[in-house]
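hey so u asked for the seq, here:
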Amino acid sequence: MSTPDPKPAKRIKDPRAVHDVVVKYARCQLCGRRGSVYRIGSKVYVMHVSGHHLVKKSQRGDDVPENILVVCGHGTDGCHGALERNDLHTQMLARAAMTEAQEEYVVRKKGWVYLERTYPRWQERPSPANISPRLPEWVKIDRSGWPPV
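ran it, structure tokens below
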């Protein structure tokens, strides 16, 4: 009787798949910034946008279309840089931009907890008018001397 192999499966490495997704969209899925697509001979080059791995490569994220979100910048600037810096607003935008297939992939690889912590659902931020303390109704303010608005 043999024992099961304790090593996890190797991640799928296919840089061509990432490139194909970036070329297909050529536009940031978060802010809409358009990338530049250049064709030189049979090669296609894309500038100003890149593929962000929803499950990072270091965490065994595969190079498959379900794991790629096309964003502007290259890891330190643009939306890609904001995602790498764990900017909450950008993470919520990424979650809103995800397809069902991408959400299913993240859950299958890392679980619901990872999905909810890394890419939380969009929540409306309260406006200052909603969070400022309101005066009770019995408090009357004399505005007769105020200039008209």
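Residues 15-119 form one domain. The two ends are 85 Å apart (CA to CA).
lmk if thats what u needed
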